[in-house]
Amino acid sequence: MNSMNRRSVLRAGLGIAGAAALTACSGSSSAPALISPSGSAVAVADKKRTRTGRTHDVTLTATQTRADLGAGISARTWAFSGQVPGRALRISAGDRLAATLSNQLPNQATTSIHWHGIALRNDMDGVPPATQAAVRTGRNFTYRFTADAPGTYFFHPHVGVQLDRGLYAPLIVEDPKEPLSYDEEWVVVLDDWLDGVTGTPDDAFAEIEQGMGGMPMGQDSGSPSGTSGHDMGGMDMSGGMDDMSGSPSTSPSGEGMGGKFMLMGAQSRLLGGDAGDVRYPYHLINGRVPADPAVFRSKPGKRVRLRLINAGGDTAYRVALGGHKLTITHTDGFPVQHQQVDALLLGMGERYDVLVTLDDGVFPLVALAEGKNAGGMAVVRTGSGSAPRTSVRPTELDGMLMAASQLRAADDVRLAPKKTDRVHRIELTGSMTAYNWAINGRRFDMNNPTAHAITVEEGQRVRLDFVNTTTMWHPMHLHGHTYQLGSGGPRKDTTVVLPKKTVSVFFDADNPGQWMLHCHNAYHGEAGMMALVAYRS
């Protein structure tokens, strides 16, 4: 099914995602029977979750609003209760969340909420048409689930390219037995922004999906040239950032090439080549442009936990706090053996928790838009001094950066050794030339989501081999589970797979249902780089 038809299906919110359709197979009598997102096996697994007995009732109203991005810049966008980012939700592990989505969006737009990274019951995952029908304008839908794994998460729509609007917010699941010692906490949300400035994400996708015609960039597949998608060469930190002001950012070496939205010439050795597809006028930290930044005020000597979330649509961010080193404690919600670094790289959908002891003064927290010659900035202020210039580039950005594959899972969350029961090759295919992104050569069919499903059975240890045959990087996200990188790497739900590389991940099939597996580049996913990981009944 082509992309235009896919968007039409999503916007119309047709009844293709009713309970009967959700359990349907490909139509072939030989197709395996699959567990329904609301079936008895899902309910049985959900009852096993640790519960506190507490329930948090919230209403999340999706509306059109005019967001203040700072420095006199405003943008007509969609947001939860008119706020970008939305207000963070905080619960404790084992609490139940009852979150009512009230769709008050214009123009009969349908929407949903996906709880990114949460291993919740399948029918609450918020993915039309796989797990629910999209929520129509003027209607409500209440998501009820228990979140039993502490960590840093966030939520966003899973309809079209709505992720690239303002409909996102952090979800913090606190650990009642928190082992970390710190004085304060700061949730930091990174985002690339175009909505209401140069157009809408739908406008951008309509242009970008036409591809680059005969341009040589992004030629189609070939055999992977390496085995570790996180190798990242020698951690070459090339990629400048000349202007982070409140003015719209220019494109890098490809300035003047491409169209209104298509970005060309963005290159990063850290990402293996092409850094991204989309030309963004702004890069935000906590909803603010660098010329009018968000400010975190504290005192010298305070130990602060930063919860970093990349909510962007097409941008990897290299993050550093000027004058400080960062100690990585978690990635994608799960603890790792602590590692001290100068900078971090976050692909779309990734989260990192770090600890930092603050010095005395005023310091820039910089999110370099990797390979795009732009970025976002916030300020940490513990004393007197003038604010950093918007063009500041801390030396830490060019210092030590560890790839996720170099981290090790904490002992208490590392998967126990076990024989692998099933192996699936997940070949990432497509090119910028035709913009035909897909998994295993098949673009996801919204009319028939279970066609060509990747099947597993409950209780299996599963290995997924992400084989990137393309010349672009892809942050691959699995819903409803956390996987482990290799035999002892970190537990994650989103991982960067570099061009012509292979990354192997392992997970235990312990959460029955039908789960999306997709590239978390909003435009690659919408173009078709998605598949369904489905449990056999």
First-last Cα distance? 27 Å
Biggest sheet statistics: 6 strands, mixed
Number of helices: 5
Number of domains: 3
Spatial order of strands in the largest sheet:
12-9-14-19-16-17
Helix/sheet category:
mainly beta
Q: How confident is the prediction overall: mean pLDDT?
A: 89
**Mind telling me which CATH architecture of the largest domain this is?**
Sandwich
- Count the strands? 32
What is the beta-strand fraction? 35-45%
Query: In terms of per-residue confidence, which ranges show pLDDT below 50 for 5 or more consecutive residues?
Result: 1-29, 214-228, 231-243, 249-256
Task: Identify the CATH homologous superfamily of the largest domain.
Answer: Cupredoxins -  blue copper proteins
Tell me the Rg in angstroms.
22 Å
The level-1 CATH class of the largest domain: Mainly Beta
Q: In the CATH scheme, what's the topology name of the largest domain?
A: Immunoglobulin-like
Percentage of helical residues? under 10%
Looking at the structure, what is the overall shape? Answer: globular
Question: Which secondary structure elements does this structure contain, and how are they paired or packed?
Answer:
Layout: H1 3-12, H2 19-23, H3 40-47, E1 55-70, E2 73-80, E3 89-92, E4 95-104, E5 114-116, E6 140-147, E7 151-156, E8 169-174, E9 184-193, H4 201-208, E10 267-268, E11 273-274, E12 282-285, E13 295-297, E14 303-310, E15 317-321, E16 326-331, E17 334-341, E18 344-346, E19 351-357, E20 362-369, E21 374-381, E22 422-429, E23 438-439, E24 454-456, E25 461-468, E26 474-478, E27 483-485, E28 491-492, E29 494-497, E30 502-508, E31 514-519, H5 522-527, E32 530-535
Parallel strand pairs: 1-4, 3-8, 9-14, 13-21, 22-25, 24-32
Antiparallel strand pairs: 1-2, 4-6, 5-7, 7-8, 9-12, 10-11, 14-19, 15-18, 15-20, 16-17, 16-19, 20-21, 22-23, 25-30, 26-29, 26-31, 27-28, 27-30, 31-32
